[in-house]
Design goal:
This protein is mostly beta strands. The chain is built from three helices and 13 strands, in the order βββββββαββββαβαβ.
């Protein structure tokens, strides 16, 4: 497979106020910023998009074919007014990605690193999760292993990257919905109590 320069995905400096966030805008630009640095930045063609409306929660999903050949999936999750997420990030990830075993790797600010392992195939999914508050989540996954660990070095270990660092391109899947690995359904809301009304009684977990 063709090698590409990681600097097309990662950039070192970003002159703005201190921030820890994942951003997406309507011009198909996806970026991840941490502490005055944009570490993922690029435009991508949207090859798949979907919106799921469940009771008290909305999930917007997009798969991007990035300019360097990597496909990233972006999910933005928002609770309804007066509702919030009930659990910490570890349990929340377990409820969202039910076909996977999750391992929490590290975090910096609002950005959390998870490695998901498919229970049947043992395939790995490398996930970044942002939680600004108890009402919204942002997920980005689809990174190659090399890129994911390079991001961890940049964000958590504050290491620099060089222009010679390389990652590999990917081949587009025939069924674009296959890029969505989360599993949102009514059970997530009703049985798993992933969200509840603010000020209400704590959920009874199974």
């Amino acid at each position: 497979m063709k090698k590409i320069i990681i600097s097309s995905l990662l950039v070192a400096l970003f002159s703005a106020c201190s921030m820890h966030r994942i951003e997406y805008n309507d011009k198909d630009k996806l970026s991840i910023s941490l502490e005055n640095r944009t570490v993922v930045k690029g435009y991508g063609d949207v090859i798949y998009k979907n919106q799921i409306n469940l009771s008290h929660i909305v999930i917007k999903q997009k798969a991007f074919s990035m300019k360097n050949g990597i496909v990233l999936t972006y999910e933005e999750v928002q609770t309804a007014p007066q509702y919030k997420f009930n659990f910490g990030m570890n349990k929340t990830v377990g409820l969202i990605f039910t076909d996977y075993v999750y391992d929490f790797l590290d975090s910096k600010g609002n950005i959390h690193f998870f490695i998901l392992t498919n229970k049947k195939t043992k395939d790995k999914v490398y996930l970044l999760l942002e939680n600004i508050n108890k009402k919204s989540l942002k997920l980005v996954y689809g990174f190659k292993k090399e890129t994911f660990y390079k991001l961890k070095e940049l964000l958590v270990e504050n290491k620099a990257f060089t222009k010679d660092d390389k990652v590999y391109t990917t081949i587009l899947k025939a069924n674009k919905s296959d890029y969505i690995t989360s599993n949102w359904n009514a059970n997530t809301i009703i049985l798993d109590n992933i969200v509840s009304k603010m000020g209400g009684k704590p959920p009874v977990t199974r």
